[in-house]
Fold:
Amino acid sequence: MDNGFQLIKPGIAPPLDGEFLPAVLANHAFKLQAAGVGVPLVIGLERESGKLSRFETCVFPEDHPKASANFYYVERLVKFLLWQRSGFRLFIGGPSNIGNFIRQVYSETGAQCFDSLFMANQVYEKPFTVEICEPHQVPPANEGGEVIGRHLDGRRIGFDLGASDRKVSAVVDGQVIFSEEKIWNPSIQSDPAYHYNEIMDSLKTAASKLERVDAIGGSSAGIYINNRPMVASLFRGVPPDRFPDIRNLFLRIGKEFNVPLVVINDGDVAALAGSMSLEDNGVLGIALGSSEAAGYVDLKGNISGWLNELSFAPIDYNPNAPVDEWSGDIGCGSTYFSQQCVFRLAPKVGIEIPQALSNAEKLAFMQDKLKAGHEGAVKIWQTMGVYLGYGIAHYADFYDMKNVIILGRCTSGEGGMVMIDETKRVFQNEFPNLAQRIHVQLPDEKSRRVGQSIGAASLPIIN
Structure:
């Protein structure tokens, strides 16, 4: 690259992507080169209620011959941290030229205006600002975090809303007595009544299996604050003037059932479900569905309150990497850890997917090819597994974790084990230290498909 930032080829190349340049390898190479000659850089991200995250690294001094590499390194770090932890105020504690660069790139007219405007308008409803300072002037970390869920007493309903299917479970004192999965296509629906009716249909079905309903817990893609969807791909077909009906959708449902209702991001529920199943903490849950969802339970068993929208976080530094359809950025998790990845790789192995099918049906079509042993389909899931190995290694630089739980429709059937095998191969060859301390695993098939709705059922406290 002409900016002086060194890109590193992986030791294990994905079978269908010879141009893959993992972020983790480039970042590690940069830090190794800067070690001993570098100066401190501290990135701070302030979010709601005075909460603040810090990330510390080092960069080349401004007058160093390799200082031009700082800009790409720090910009990709900021991009990752914004979508991992979020924030409306960014502190850049280090060389002022880096701070000025980040301020320009993340301005309303900068190259990463999607990210800054998203945080400002969609999440926090306040201006996004960049403060340039010395490393010691970045405020101290104030993460917060809380224990949430793990309540299985009483008669509960848990639901999980995905972009191509929705799942519901009826749970009695921690035991699942009923579960159901239905295909739907919510993202193209403009009428809030569609979403209300479809969700209520699943909830009423589960309620019919219980003598009473004591609580409802939900898992859904998107950003949720106080049970209100601030941004969610499920509802992107709803026009802005009708979105207030969506914001109050789950409050309305809770009132109609007259029970406690809690709904949070599906990634956090994936991590919570994994933590409950393993009876352990330090869990990163990754759901590979219509896009990538992620969630995190820290080493103390807390949900951090971070955004964990890793679908927008870069894991590939190839300048020709695929483009995320929403943000317009390249190399982001959405196109590597999702059905989108399956669909974009299919032409490379000569598989033509019938376009009349829904996305859920397209994925099932590809999974049938995999089950039949189609060589090209096997290579697709192997490629995703290699991506996952380097991606998790990258995530390990930002999360303290002992366990990674892989969930979602893309892992169903044979695909999950094909991916896990490749992920472990990457770990053993490239990151032997991670292979020893991080356990990457799949739940069993039943838990994989309905585990999030079960975990969601544990969210509310019964009064």
About this structure: The two ends are 59 Å apart (CA to CA). The domain at 155-265 is CATH 3.30.420.40 (Nucleotidyltransferase; domain 5). The mean pLDDT is 93.
